[in-house]
Amino acid sequence: MRSSSSLSKSVLSSLPSLIPLFAMPFLLFATAVLAVFLATPMIDAGFVAFEDSSSLTNSVFFIVMLLFFTGILLFLIRYRLQSIIRLIILASLFLSYIYVFSAILTFFDLSLFFVTVLGTVLAGFATVLLFRFPEWYVIDVLGVLLAGGIASIFGISLEPLPVILLLVILAVYDAISVYRTKHMLTLADTVMQQKIPIMVIVPKKRSYSFIKEKFESIKTKDDEIGDTFSSPTSHLATDNSSNESTHTHDRAAYLMGLGDLIMPTVLVVSAAVFVPGGGVGIFSLCSLTTLIGSLIGLCFLMFFVQRGSAHAGLPPLNGGAIIGFLIGMILIYIF
To answer: Which of 63, 273, 296, 330 has the most other CB atoms within 10 Å of its CB?
Structure first.
């Protein structure tokens, strides 16, 4: 009886520390649900990014634009023009939220004029709130909303094959930019120092405040780089900045870039739109297995992040999504 009681107490005492580990997969799951849910209104509203959804050149175009945008940000960082970076990201968030809120408003019986006006007003409110009050729970809610909307737009615009090509290229690029060139860590430095809200945050302690947090620079020794920051658009890391030493692993929060939520979810939406059939609720069988694969990939990633360093998030996330998609296709072929 004593051993059973002590075991129960041990399990209960460990629950608070386990909640953050479950919270991050929940954010990915919530993003996928929202993205698939928005797919139909996005299609009806004509929010399609590419005319030919089957063209592989769409993936190449996406990568070229990503590299171009990254180059501009690195140029601005080099010349210490952080204020311009804030304006660029602020404008990007505002425009993205217009699409997201407009798609949501199409569920109501409103005219195109009111949908446009209300969508713009809500987008402005969300953007201002993010930059004026960037607390972790505000960032998380609006981050999931934004990630779901963007993933839905690209998911309805690209068939699975171009998406898979895109995910493979991005996974390789992600690994190179984190472990070799480390330029993503340079971007992450600026994002965290400026508290630019393009990530999701899961605090380990209730008292955690992203607004009050003071982040140290990641531009230190190579063996210290991963202990403080994650990438602004992808990668999963832990925030140890509230500790006395960057080498301690009593992390204050988990940080994950919106890219980690968006990219695997794009394949989930694409599978739901272009490979219908079976499944549960709004998810087709193939989209459901893709989501499960993404969640497994995230769990695999968090196993390594538990050790206290930043890691490229897209290789395991995209890899899990692709494997899940292929399993779904096999199941469809068999049954």
So the answer is: 273
